[in-house]
Amino acid sequence: MKYVSTRGGEAVSLDTALVQGIAPDGGLFLPKMFPNFSPEDFASCENIQDTARKLLAPFFVGSQLQASLPEIVAETFHFDIPVTWHGTESDQFGLLELFHGPTAAFKDVGAAFLAACISRLEGDEASPLTIIVATSGDTGGAVAAAFNERPGMRVVVLYPDGRVSERQAHQLTCWGDNVLSLAVQGSFDDCQALAKGAFADQNLSSRYRFSSANSINIGRLLPQSIYYAHSSLQHFASGRGRANFIVPTGNLGNGLACVMAREMGFPIGDVIFSTNANRTIADFLAKGEWQPRQSIATLASAMDVGNPSNMERMRKLFGEGEDLARLVSVVSVTDDQIREQIKINYDDLGTVTCPHTATATFAWRNFAKDVAPDGNWICVATAHAAKFEQVVEPVIGQSVDLPPELREILSRPQRFVQIEPDADQVANAMDQYFSS
Ligand SMILES: *Cc1c(COP(=O)(O)O)cnc(C)c1O
Question: Reduced to 3 DSSP states, what percent helix, strand and coil does the chain have, rounded to the nearest 5?
C-alpha cells in the first residue's frame, strides 16, 4: 500500500509516512486506496486483535513492519474496549468505552500503535530517537506512556506548569526512565514554540535525533478505525443490525476513523459528530463555508479545536457541501448543556461520563431519533470521568471512583524539571537528564 499527501505529490511507503508524520508539502498522508471488506470476512475473528490484524494487513503490504503486525497489534490492543448499555429498557444507548488504557483516554490507542511502529522503524540504542511533545494536558501523557521504557527511544514532554489539572500533571511527570518532563513557566503556546525551536536548532539536532508523535500522523488514525470495525461487527453478529455511532470530535481524528470504517464496509449505519461550543465543523456542514477560527475554552477541553486538521483528509476523501452533509450530522453542545447532560447521565441514565462523552449522550437524547428513529446508537466514551473530576464531581455531587489505571499512575512519584520558556534551558535539561 502506498500513501499520498492530501495535497498531491509522490506516493510514499507506510514507513515513510509514519516517520515523516506530515507530508513535505504540508499535507496529511492518506492511504492511496481503502480495502473493501464484508462482515463475513471477519467471521472467524474472536477478539479485537483478530479483527485488527485482518483489517490492517492491506495497509502494511510492502512495509518493513509487515511481519511485525501481530506484535504491533498485541502491543496496541492490550486493554479492553467493551460496549456497555445504559438508559431504560425501551430506550437504550451503548457506550463504546475507550478509556481502559494506561492514561484512561482513547488517545492511548493511537499513541501505543505509533510507538510500536516508530520504535521498530527508527529506535536505535546507539543513537536513540527523541520524541518531543508539547501538550496542553492529555496527549503528552498518552505519548509518554506509549514510549516509556522502549529501548532506543526517548521522550521530552513540555507542558504549561500550573495550567493543567493536578491529575494531568501527574500523568505527565510519573514516568522517569527515558521520559523527561519539563514544567514550563508559560503557556501551551510557549511549549509549542519551544518544541518547534528544538527541532530547528542545528546544534541540538546534532546531539539528538528528533521526531514528533503528531496527532495528524497516519499512525494515530489507522488503529482508531479498528474499535469501530470490531464493535460494529459484534453488534451485527448479535442480530441487532447496523450500529449507529455518535463520536465526540475535536481535531476530527476519531470521527474520521469511524467514517473510514464504514467506507471499508463495516456494518455501521448513521454517524453523528458531537462537538463542544467550537462550531467550525457544525458551521461548515450547515453553510458549506470552511471558516477555521481561534479555539474557545470549554468544559470538554480536549476538543477545544477551532481549526480541525483532519478536515483536510475528510474533504479529500468525501468532498464538500452536500456530499459531506449526507455523510454525517454534527451537533454542537454548549457548556451549560454539557453540565446538564452529565447530571442527567448520572441521575437518570445510570452512568457517569466525562464532559466529552456527555456531548455524545446529549446528541443521543436530543437528535439521534430524528436521524435514525429505530436504530441502535452507540456513544463513544473518549475518557474516564475521573480524569475530569473537577468538572464532573460538583455536577453530580459525588466523588468519582478512580479506575485501576489512574490509581496506578497517581501512586507513582512525580519527577520533572521546571524551566523558563527559554530554548537554552530545554537543551540544558535534556543534556543533564539524558547523560545521567
Ligand atoms: C482528543 C480527545 C477528543 C477529540 O478527539 P479528536 O480525534 O481530536 O476528534 C475527545 N475526547 C477526549 C477525551 C480526547 O482526549
Answer: 45, 15, 35
